[in-house]
Amino acid sequence: MPSTPRKSGVALLPGAKPTPDHEMAVHQSLAIRIATLLGTRFLDEDERQGIPAHDLYYLPADTLIDPADWRQRCGIASLDDFFGGLVSQPFMVTKAISHPRVQGGAAPEGWADAFAAQAGDALLDGLTVFSLDDAHTAAALLLKHAPLRLKPVRATAGRGQTIIRDTQELDLVLNHLDEAEIHLWGLVLEQNLTEVRTLSVGQVQVAGITASYHGTQQLTEDHRGELVYGGSDLVVVRGDYPTLLALDLEDATRLAITQARRYEQAALSAFPGFIASRRNYDVARGLDHRGLPRSGVLEQSWRVGGASSAEILALQAFAADPHLQCVQASTHEVFDDSPIPADATLFYQGDDSELGRLSKYARIRDYERP
Q: What's the pLDDT score for residue 159?
């Protein structure tokens, strides 16, 4: 922990849309813990008055866009300035980058065909489009082999996805989509996997500590009966990805880490100005239409996310014990009144205006070797 903090405090940075109550509570709790790691304090909006914006460390609600703008506004120019990610174009923050575009198809400014080429087999089969015409072209190509999964790129927690089996089903869905939204952000058409298991791979860097992890996600039912993100179980090591790969790992986990690293390196190479102190990748492993196993990165998260409470608890554990090298950490999102475990750190509990009754907590424990 630094003895003389370079930053005068840690502050939240709101996103383009209002942050839901439950997320705001979690973000503030995380910011307080990050401030402790940095040897400084969390500052609310009133407490920030009079402090130069460049003297603060930020926790943004969203991935930041436009490096030159954020450098000028807040002095965000390196990993030491914020918890999250910074890219040059809007589409880079979404799962749109996880597939190549249709050959010769429309693409926004900054699109890099080199990304998909460099990511290679870290990606599942699929195409990204930026127009309705290209969506029809992509579907015609993909439906020759099997049903596809249509994914609005800004939807989260698996919401809004549709299985498409033929062009008639495609037309029914496309007729309800906003072409201006697709033009700016993109639309993904991807091979549909069954018996899917989602693995998480990621890395965080705060206060001179680097932590890398692998883990799995759980689904739970929300109050509408939809299956949504219910938490993550992580194994977190002090250090970079090679330290993580040095663990005794299942082949599927080792492949997921290798694919996430390749995806990340492709982004660093193909997207000028990209930096991120928080990087998380969802890697899907399932069966294709022939019943063969497939694995690939579904999407990236270069901002505070569902696993971040576990990430920060792990960083705090490493900061408290310089000899500690590995821990297990988990996050939990519960849509009922189940009791909170005694060893849990509660980040939110209440009646959210959008989601209803919700509890969010995290747990940390000693690493148990397989």
A: 64
**What are the residues facing 145 on neighbouring strands?**
none
| Confidence label for 157 from pLDDT (cuts 50, 70 and 90) | low
Give CA–CA dist 317/75, Å, rounded. 29
Question: 347: which 2 tokens?
Answer: 């980040």
Residue 1's pLDDT is: 43
Q: Is 70 exceeded by the pLDDT of residue 2?
A: no
Domains in the chain and their CATH numbers? Answer: 9-87 (no CATH), 94-123+125-192 (3.30.1490.20), 195-366 (3.30.470)
Amino acid letter for position 239: G
The pLDDT assigned to 139 comes to 95
If DSSP states are collapsed to H, E and C, what string results for the chain? CCCCCCCCEEEEECCCCCCCHHHHHHHHHHHHHHHHHHCCCECCCCCCCCCCHHHEEEEECCCEECHHHHHHHHCCCCHHHECCEEECCHHHHCHHHHCCECCCCCCCCCCCHHHHHHHHHHCCCEEEECCHHHHHHHHHHHCCCCCEEEEECCCCCCCCCEEECCHHHHHHHHCCCCHHHHHHHCEEEEECCEEEEEEEEEEEEECCEEEEEEEEEEEEECCCCCEEEEEEEEEEEECCHHHHHCCCCCHHHHHHHHHHHHHHHHHHHHCCCCEECEEEEEEEEEECCCCCEEEEEEEEECCCCCCHHHHHHHHHHHHHCCCCCEEEEEEEEECCCCCCCCCCEEEEEEEECCCEEEEEEEEEEECCCC
- The interaxial angle of helices 167-174 and 132-142, nearest 10 deg, is 160
> Does pTM surpass 0.90?
yes
189: β partners: 127, 150
* Euclidean distance between CA atoms 51 and 269, whole angstroms: 35
